[in-house]
Amino acid sequence: MGYTADERLAASPEEGRYLEAVFTLGAQVGTHAEDPARPVYVVEVTEVSPIRVPSGRLVVASPWPDDSDRELPTPAGRELKDRIPPGVHRVQASWTEAPYEYNGEQFDGREEVAVRLLVSDAPVACWEAALGVGESIEQIVPGERPIFDSEENMGSFADATAWPSLTEPFRRFWLDVDAGKQDASRATESLDESFERVSDEALEADLVTFPTGGGTIVWLGRTETGSIASIVTVGPAFFHNELVTSRVSRAARTRL
Fold first, then answer.
1. What pLDDT, in 10s, does the model give residues 77-126?
2. Is residue 2 part of a domain?
3. Organism's domain of life (predicted)?
4. pTM for the full predicted model
5. Torsion of CA 33, 35, 39, 43, to 10 degrees
C-alpha cells in the first residue's frame, strides 16, 4: 500500500491538478485575468541554479529581516520538518505568458508562477502542504494551509545550518540603509532579474532566492513510498481560475 497524506495537509483535487500542470510544458494553468476565454499556458521551465544542502535540513523563507524591527536581527527562517537527502539539488522555475495591452502598449505578460527544488526524478504520487519545525498537524485549521510570510516579496531555499551566514548580506544591506549609506548594496550573486544566490564556502552551503507574493505555501511532492521528490512553492492566488497578469513588476518586488 502506498503513502497516504493526512487529509488536513493533502492537496485538494484542484490544487493537485495545478501542481502537476505547473511544471509541464504546454499545460494550461489558468485564464487571462481580463479575458477569461484566453487560456494561459506554461511556456518554459528553466534551470535556476544548483543548491548545496549539506545538512539535509531545508529552510524555505524570506532571507530579509523584518524591517519594522529596528534591531534588524537575523530573520527567523522556517525550517521544514521533513528533511531531504544531503547534497546538491536543482532549483527550477516555471514560466507562463499571457499577453496584454496597457496604455496602448503591448506586454508579453511573462511571469514566474512556481519554483521547485527537485530532489529526485521519481514520479510524484501525492502532494501535501509542508509543516515547519515546531508546527503540529493538530494546529491546522480545516481549509487553511501553513504559509510563510515573504518579506520584500522574496522567498528562498537554503541550508538550515548555514542560515545565519547566508542571510547576512540581506541584513547587512538594511543596516547600511538605516545608517544612511548612499552606496548600500547586497553581496549576492545575481542569477537573472528574478533570482539571487549566496554561498558559504566554509560550510559548502547555498541560498537561492525567488520572487513571491504574500503568504506562500510550500508543497511536498511525495512518491508512492512517501519520500520527497520535489518541493514546490506557489502563492495561494495561483489556485484560482484566473491568473492576474498585471501584478507588481519584478523591479518593485525587492528594494534594490
1. 999 999 999 999 999 999 998 777 778 888 877 888 899 999 999 999 99
2. no
3. Bacteria
4. 0.87
5. -60
Domain that holds residue 81: 13-246
Q: Cell numbers at residue 68, please?
A: 519594522
H-type alpha helices, the chain: 13-21, 163-166, 168-178, 250-253
In Å, how far from its chain's centre is CA 191? 15
Q: Do the domain assignments include residue 214?
A: yes
Is residue 5 in a domain?
no
Judged by DSSP in three states, 243 sits in strand
Name the strand (E) or helix (H) holding 148.
strand 147-148
Phi, psi dihedral angles at 53 (to 5 degrees): -130, 75
Number of domains into which the chain is organized: 1
Pair type for strands 216-222 and 147-148: antiparallel
* Separation in Å, CA 191 to CA 6, 151, 210: 37, 20, 10
Rounded Cα distance between 163 and 161, Å, is 6
State whether residue 138 is helix, strand or coil: helix
